[in-house]
Amino acid sequence: MAFIATLLAAVGAVSPSVARSSRTDQMLKLDPATRVEQRCDARAMGIVGREHKGYRPDEFVAYAFADPVMRGTQIKAPGGAIRSSGKWYRLAYVCETSPDGLDIKSFSYQLGAEIPRSEWDTHYLVPR
To answer: Taken in order 121, 123, 124, 128, is the CA torsion positive or negative?
Structure first.
């Protein structure tokens, strides 16, 4: 019992800055292009969840309808799809990160219509 209490105390002692540092370390292990794409994809999911009532995104496919285009630290994903509550929706974004790919400098997006189930397989969209 004392071991569990010690373990819980130790886990609780990890500050948010330590957790953030660990995530940063993991991101820096990715190649720069992957880092930019991962960071921007995460922003897309987060912003849709915050700005659209009832949406709880749990997956994003940047290349569903068109390949993303990268130029340095900017990525355009004109043909993405985002899944929320078991349904897929079209989503396009333009995102630019800091030179290290860790911070978002600018982000704009457009959430589109629901994608019919009959199109999921063609566009690499999997059910929940």
So the answer is: negative
- CA 82 – CA 56 distance, rounded (Å): 10
Please check whether residue 46 is in contact with residue 58, taking contact to mean a CB–CB distance below 8 angstroms: no
Centre a 10 Å sphere on the Cβ of residue 28 and count the other Cβ atoms it contains: 12
C-beta separation of 40 from 72 below 8 A: no
Work out whether the CA dihedral 37, 41, 47, 48 comes out positive or negative.
positive
Please say if the pLDDT value at position 123 is more than 50.
yes
Q: Residue 16 corresponds to which tokens in the numbers above?
A: 């948010």
Q: Domains for the chain: give ranges and CATH numbers.
A: 31-123 (3.10.450)
Residue pair 43/79 in contact (Cβ under 8 Å)? The answer is: no
Helices 32-51 and 16-28, interaxial angle, to 10°? 130
Tell me the whole-structure pTM to 2 decimals: 0.78
Asked whether 48 and 57 are in contact (CB, 8 A), the reply is yes
Task: Give per-residue pLDDT as tens, 15-27.
Answer: 445 555 676 777 7
Tokens of 51: 């700005």
